[in-house]
Design goal:
Protein name: BTB domain-containing protein
Pfam families: ARM_6 (PF26522), BTB (PF00651)
Low-confidence stretches: 3-12, 618-641, 733-737
Organism: Protea cynaroides
Strand order of the largest sheet: 5-4-6
InterPro entries: ARM-like, ARM-type_fold, ARM_At1g04390, At1g04390-like, BTB/POZ_dom, SKP1/BTB/POZ_sf
Radius of gyration: 34 Å
Distance between the termini: 44 Å
Helix content: 55-70%
Pathway: Protein modification; protein ubiquitination
């Protein structure tokens, strides 16, 4: 320790008493701290009395530290030496010394506050973590408090330091010790204080380090203990449990696990949202609920258990924060914000929307928007439109609750877009009307102010994106009441010179898509301008202006620019109010993208284009609309007039987000094209044009007939099958009657159709049933609409209706996996048999075969695999066999059949589930994909081979040590692409693997491949890997 004689005048300002205490500290620490090689300093004294003297000196010196003196050189040097001493003394076996050391540590951490990050406090984390398994409760409690104080301040630390902390927590089995302690509490051997501090420490760890979540939420005994505590009404229990559950819910898989048997948890959460609870508890309850609704799956599960109580709690918090004057106190703002955050569950459709409207959410939103809302309670019925807008403007300008305004717009937008067509607010319509007036004013202001804002001003986007998006949802709401009032209000707000704004908005799109010009506008600005155009397009007057201003040509060029440049942008990059401190540590996220996903620019440009085309319905016929668009396309590029249709087909049949795909399909409907083209649909569609393997014949009244396949009809349009022949989804029995019924169902059958069914119309319906896509139905539209409705083909019926796509609708894709259920066995005509394994105990629900197998359908295999098609058509003995033996294991066969029926390979577990799986199990999970890669070569399944290679590469990237095992398996199957991927993943570990002898199990050829990959890795640099 440095001598106090080195202190400067600045240090002497500490005061004589502090300098005296420092001198004593200096002398005490010098008794135990030793230097090695003039660099490393360690405490090496085990004498209890010297340790006690040092701790007393530390305690006395820490008492004199204040925020003003903490930056002095003497204090900083002393703290560094104090940490050196505490690191070793905290490992003492003497309980009295331990208690003193822990108390001194707690005092030091408390005094230093955030300035502790200036020091190497990692020295304390290891010993404190190790003491969590100490038998004495009071020692553990004190350690928990000290460690929690340190870890709680780590949000400001560099990522590298946080990784070091994570490593220490793993080495000391910190989480395991905490979990054991919590289980001990359930036996009555530990105090509630012990439980409180240990649970709080666990919450802090789980909040910052995702790897520790799985061992907690997967511990069934611990969840039972926590669930038992949930039923206790004591608020002190809720204070502990709510943040702990919130931290666990940061893992998407963990959140769903908690909801599986979460009745007690949700009841406690709802109880804690009540207005009788302190605000701090209510806030934690709202935060926990937000964790459960990060995904639509979680939202629907939670709402199915306690929908109305949660909505009531949200409304209560949003309305209860206002005083008599209508203002919100500063201390109530955190509660209001969290309630508004939870109200964003309106983004998902569901019964909760009904409760929001029932509890007059529009009145609450209006009162939060307008600080002088009391003026409307008596006079809004008698105001003219002009006076109403003036009063609304005054209220908007005077309101100080700007922080929650983005949430208000989001809530209003989601409520509008998911609203039922026949919704009517009844006696409370005036409040909704005023709310719509507010939105129209702010939306138009956003459009106008955009022309004066600098490109780099991101605050503009975060302020105006929510209202721009929300107003588009209102003006295109399925609810006629909302849409009509939004259009009328916008018309009243707009100025006579709005055409200038339209020309400006179109100009930004034109400039952006012109590759010969410098891009003057960012993607964020373009996104907001597109929303502005979508708003204008809701009014017929401005749609015509856009069309006259070459709007169609500009939009088509812009869409092509988006596709060519693969432009991607998520809403989160614009809407900053959706950012949350927990976002950085969320793991195992389910798909919770907005409908437009990362294709915002493409989505809104398609939305505007759809409205412009839809408005052209006033033309004499669809051909006029089509030819007009083709004319524009011919001007755009002297190529085929079908460039638009090809472009839209590329979108709706591609990997874009659901929103753009739906709007591309919606636009295509004006060209007589309906549905979503897909690879699987195209394959299955080939079977319709051929009589191969057909087992049904549809006979029309004029004796024309169509040969089709029963299994495809049963999956996609069971209404065309006679009721008596429809199989049920039930387990097949073993009796003779069941077997006879099954065999009879497999015979070739004829079905006679009604006299009203036309051959052409039936054929178009069958095209959609087989492929999920149909075109050229312009002249048959009315008849096809009737037939699809009678046959209950709901997806096609909706598309034929000409209505806008319903927001958040899933893609109506081809999927024949229901045919693999018990009922599909009635149509099964072949068995795929996997390689038998000694350890597998196999039973089948529909037959007595003991070898792993699947009952499938020749027509699906015929359509999806050239090898099997050739086999079935060969006329050889194997072509008539009821069993096809596939030389892969059961898991590989199951995945292959899934691909045949859905065009998708099931993927192995990911996130926390994968990371907490041992290497042997990971190998078992990956090996089926290696087997499929091998089989795909012989069966000519290039797509399967590519998908398997991608999946294996992803698994190896997340678990590099798995590569050592995978490379041998891949070599055994001669899958050299996988061998190369595995070798590249092993390259950074090569020296470690070589020195540890793990490479000795590999063939010399494989070792050479890995060595070559390591050389490349060394030459290229680790940054590329």
């Amino acid at each position: 320790m440095k001598s106090s004689k080195q202190g400067t005048k600045k240090n002497r300002s500490l005061g004589d008493h502090a300098l005296t205490l420092h001198q004593r500290l200096y002398q005490a620490l010098n008794l135990g701290i030793k230097s090695y090689d003039n660099r490393e300093r360690k405490w090496r004294c085990t004498d209890v009395e010297i340790q006690r003297l040092a701790l007393r000196s530390i305690s006395a010196f820490v008492d004199c530290i204040s925020p003003e003196t903490s930056e002095h050189t003497i204090v900083k040097d002393s703290i560094n030496d104090i940490l050196v001493a505490l690191e070793e003394i905290l490992q003492s076996k003497n309980e009295a010394i331990l208690r003193m050391a822990i108390n001194v540590t707690m005092k030091l951490v408390d005094v230093l506050g955030n300035s502790i990050l200036q020091y190497d406090v990692l020295k304390l984390v290891h010993p404190l973590s190790s003491l969590l398994s100490f038998p004495e409760s009071h020692v553990v409690v004190s350690c928990s408090i000290a460690l929690n104080q340190i870890l709680s301040k780590l949000s400001l630390w560099r990522i590298k330091r946080q990784e070091e902390i994570c490593k220490i927590l793993k080495e000391t089995n910190t989480v395991e010790h905490i979990v054991c302690g919590l289980l001990d509490f359930a036996t009555g051997t530990r105090s509630f204080e012990y439980f409180h501090e240990m649970a709080s420490l666990l919450t802090t760890i789980l909040w910052r380090w995702p790897p520790f979540r799985y061992p907690v939420w997967s511990n069934g005994k611990l969840l039972e203990v926590l669930e038992a505590l949930c039923v206790k009404p004591d608020s002190s229990v809720a204070v502990v449990l709510l943040p702990l559950y919130s931290a666990l819910a940061l893992c998407g898989t963990g959140a769903m696990k908690l909801l599986e048997n979460g009745e007690a948890l949700l009841l406690m959460m709802v109880r804690c949202m009540d207005c009788s609870q302190p605000d701090s508890i209510r806030i934690e309850a709202f935060k926990l609920a937000q964790g459960f609704v990060r995904s639509q799956q979680g939202c629907l599960k939670m709402m199915s258990l306690c929908c109305e109580p949660i909505v009531r709690a949200i409304i209560s918090a949003m309305s209860g924060c206002r005083s008599g004057s209508g203002k919100v106190a500063t201390y109530q703002m955190p509660l209001l914000v969290e309630a508004c955050r939870l109200a964003l569950i309106t983004r998902w459709a569901g019964v909760h929307h009904m409760y929001f409207w029932k509890l007059e959410v529009h009145q609450i939103l209006l009162e939060l928007l307008l600080s002088n809302s009391y003026k409307f309670k008596t006079c809004q019925h008698f105001m003219s439109s002009k006076d109403l807008l003036a009063t609304v403007r005054e209220g908007l300008d005077s309101n100080h609750l700007l922080v929650i305004r983005p949430y208000i717009w989001d809530i209003l937008g989601w409520l509008s877009i998911h609203c039922e067509e026949t919704f009517n607010p009844g006696t409370h319509g005036c409040s909704l009307n005023v709310l719509i007036s507010c939105a129209s004013l702010v939306f138009v202001d956003a459009i106008r102010s955009g022309r004066q804002v600098a490109q780099s001003e991101i605050s503009y986007a975060s302020k105006h994106e929510p209202i721009s998006r929300a107003f588009c949802m209102m003006i295109y709401s399925p609810c006629q009441y909302i849409a009509t009032h939004a259009k009328n209000n916008m018309s009243e707000v707009l100025m006579p010179n709005e055409e200038d704004n339209l020309v400006y908005l179109l100009g930004t799109l034109k400039s952006t898509s012109d590759e010969n010009k410098y891009r003057a506008f960012s993607n964020i600005r373009i996104a907001l301008n597109l929303m502005g155009l979508a708003g204008y397009s809701g009014l017929s007057k401005y749609r015509s202006v856009i069309i006259k201003s070459d709007g169609l040509k500009i939009l088509l060029t812009f869409i092509r620019w988006c596709l060519k440049n693969d432009v991607s942008m998520r809403r989160l990059s614009i809407a900053h109010h959706l950012h949350h401190t927990s976002n950085e540590t969320i793991c195992c996220c389910f798909d919770n993208e907005d409908w437009e996903g990362e294709d915002i620019l493409l989505f809104f440009s398609l939305w505007v284009l759809a409205e412009l085309i839809q408005s052209s319905k006033s033309a004499r016929n669809l051909q006029e609309v089509t030819s007009g668009l083709v004319d524009h396309l011919m001007e755009l590029e002297s190529s085929e007039g079908h460039i638009l249709i090809n472009m839209l087909q590329q979108i709706c049949g591609g990997t874009f987000s659901a929103g753009p795909r739906w709007y591309a399909t919606y636009i295509l409907s004006y060209f007589g094209c309906y549905g979503f083209p897909s690879k699987l649909g195209k394959r299955i569609g080939e079977a319709l044009n051929k009589n191969e393997l057909a087992d049904l014949q549809l006979i029309l009244a004029n004796r024309e007939s169509v040969r089709i396949h029963g299994i495809i009809l049963w999956v996609r349009c069971p209404s065309l099958l006679p009721m008596g022949e429809l199989p049920q989804n039930e387990k097949i029995g073993d009796d003779f009657a069941d077997r006879q019924k099954i065999e009879k169902s497999k015979e070739f059958r004829e079905i006679r159709l009604s006299t009203h069914v036309d051959h052409q119309v039936l054929w178009k319906l069958l095209e959609f049933i087989y492929t999920g896509y149909v075109e050229g139905v312009t002249d048959l539209l009315k008849q096809l609409k009737i037939l699809s409705r009678r046959c209950n083909v709901h997806s096609l019926s909706h598309m034929l209706s000409g209505k806008r796509p319903k927001w958040d609708s899933a893609i109506a894709c081809c999927d024949f996996t229901p045919a693999l259920g018990p009922a599909g066995y009635y149509f099964s005509d072949v068995v795929l048999e996997a390689k038998a394994t000694e350890i597998m105990n196999w039973t089948c629900s529909v037959c007595s075969q003991s070898v792993p197998h699947m009952h499938v359908h020749k027509i699906i295999l015929w359509a999806s695999c050239d090898y099997l098609r050739a086999l079935f058509q060969s006329g050889m003995q194997d072509s008539h066999s009821q069993i096809i033996r596939v030389q892969v294991g059961w898991e590989a066969l199951r995945k292959l059949v899934s691909w045949f029926y859905s065009d998708e390979l099931p993927k192995p577990s990911s996130g926390c589930l994968w990371n907490n799986t041992d290497l042997e199990q990971q190998l078992l999970d990956v090996q089926p994909y290696i087997e499929l890669c091998w089989l795909a070569e012989f069966w000519f399944l290039e797509d399967v081979q590519e998908d398997c290679l991608s999946i294996v590469a992803s698994c190896l990237k997340s678990s590099r040590h798995l590569s050592v095992k995978v490379i041998s398996v891949a070599a055994r199957f001669s899958q050299w692409k996988i061998v190369e991927v595995a070798a590249n993943c092993m390259a950074p570990l090569f020296p470690q693997l070589r020195d540890s002898g793990q490479l000795e199990a590999l063939d010399e050829e494989l070792v050479d491949i890995v060595r070559a990959a390591y050389v490349r890795f060394s030459q290229e640099g680790a940054s590329d890997h």
